[in-house]
Amino acid sequence: MAMKKNTFTLEQLETLPAEEIIDKIQHENYSLLTSVGSDDLRKEMVKVGKACNLAINYFFRTTGPKDDPKKHIKAARKKLVKVLSKITPGSYKGMPHDQKNGLVVGFNHPSLGEIARILTMKIDIMGEKPMYFPVNLPWYEALAPNFDRIKRLGIIITPTITPSTWSKMGLKEGTKVFEATNRIKKEFRDIYTKLSHDAVKQGGVIFVAPSATRQATVFKNEDEYSGKEEIIPTMSMLAVKLYADPKMKCDFLPMAILPPANYSRGLNFRKKYRLIPGEIMTADYIRKKYFKDKKAKHLDGFDREFHQRIADQLPRKFWY
Length: 320
Description:
By secondary structure, this protein is of the alpha/beta class. About 50% of the residues lie in helices and about 10% in strands. It is globular, with a radius of gyration of 20 Å.
């Protein structure tokens, strides 16, 4: 029987820094979702979380040598890639693996399936490079018990509350719970930005879905594609934050996800995905084209170009 989740008091929600909220979720069996009346969102991910945690524990338990941490983690990674390549196969031919600069990889997000393929690719060809992955809060709470082991694999997850999840939480504006949770949501985003900066400065890689949610096509709809509707400025906001550091050497890579035929929104076991890298948008290119104002707060056109570069590598039915 699952252990009952601990909950934050209103006072804790109002006063605890987001770092402490995260620590309690990781190590003390707390749930932010349960605390704010969204236990149903947490429960949606319980089965998936258990499956992921069992798998991670299996790879660590069945590999060795246990007395040599470096060799142990190398063996666990190798076995993980071998198994995942069979049950969640993916092709990532042409993906850069000797990139010296930090790298932000933005991808379309049609299902959960590409996440497993992306993680396999990272562990397989990007070795020791630090990797930061923003994880939607329901997912994060499900995976938090194994945060340390996931980190040892070279993957550091950090919680975020996507627009879709925020809407589903249904918090009433003007209430103390709304204000407290909104503050935490913003602090989660700030933590992710700082971690992203640290990762790419070390030559690491960040994977991010510009849509911030699962979406069958690159553009949300035809109006977004044609420019009649604004695109969520996920990529430009990240670029502004990263390039605020004049010494930052970070490139952006649009990566197209081509799911298998008759795919579902789930993991699509034993069906092959294609992860198709586009041309790298270098730091020099982005700075020259989009940072004509050295103190730019938004980058007009950057998100549209990034989305279009993803779409150009896919059949038109995936555009919008």
